[in-house]
Amino acid sequence: MNKPLEILKALSDRNRLRVVAALMHIDELCACQVVELLHVTGATASRHMGLLLHAGIVESRKDGRWVYYRLVDSIDPHLFQWLEYELKSVAGLEADRRLLETIVACEPEELCRRQRGEECCPNSFNKGK
């Protein structure tokens, strides 16, 4: 009984539901893309993603300095089908989908630079100067 309760609790937050909705349309998102989508701090996005990880809704992989998240395959696909149906008319999610297109078109380094500044992800063009 704990697993369904954990899943439902994790999905009960609007921002976490927005991330799951985004991941239903995009295979995976980098942590910086989640920050950009939600317009929250990295720590807040990390807390949200930690709850989704703990509930078993998403899984993560590390690639160098980047952490990527994707929906797990082990959850009954009916849950995501139901969510997709129910979320069609939710205000704001269509705007999220449009925003997501611009977010994924941008390299993670550029997003990181915008969010944290040049010292986090130095522009390779400026490294030799």
UniProtKB/TrEMBL annotation:
SMART domains: HTH_ARSR
A Pfam cross-reference name: HTH_5
Keyword DNA-binding included in the entry's annotation: yes
Keyword match Transcription: yes
Superkingdom of origin: Bacteria
HTH arsR-type domain ranges (all copies): 1-94
Keywords: DNA-binding, Transcription, Transcription regulation
Molecular functions per Gene Ontology: DNA binding; DNA-binding transcription factor activity
Name assigned to this protein: Arsenic resistance transcriptional regulator ArsR1
GN (gene name): arsR1_2
